[in-house]
Amino acid sequence: MNSIKTILVFLILAVIFSGCVQTNTTTNQNNSDTTNKSMQKEMNEMMNEMHGFNIKEIAKHNSEKDCWLLINGKVYDVTGFEETHSGGKAILEGCGKDATALFESRPMGSGTPHSDNARELLSEFYIGNLN
Ligand code: HEM
Question: For the chain: N or C, fewer Cβ within 10 A?
């Protein structure tokens, strides 16, 4: 009777232990997937910074659904930003172009340069340089 109990306890412990290992493996895999993705993103950013984009490549991203701006030699992917941008869809005029003059003068709006706050926001959209 005692040996049956021992076997049962052993089996229960084995089931619990294998569950723990599995959960741990899944968690570790999820963690390393996230780490891999963020490392890959950083690598891409470094490569883009080193090699940069040419004007032909930038020109392909010229729509509301895919909008890159070139401002002062740096490339920004602002796709979707028109929804929260204070100037709304005015930003779309710059898609696929050198939008430096538009950014600095806002001819369709106040005719003044963007604020320092707007300049700080830019870094969130930065994807690389013009080569
Ligand atoms: C082609 C590029 C862009 C154009 C034509 C444009 C145009 C405008 C316009 C018309 C306004 C409304 C205020 C006014 O009439 O002067 C505005 C406001 C604003 N925009 Fe843009 N925008 C552009 C790109 C950007 C980018 C890339 C950012 C930030 C990443 C940005 C951030 C802001 C902010 C924060 C405001 C509020 C006012 C300020 O802080 O200057 N805009 N923009």
Answer: N
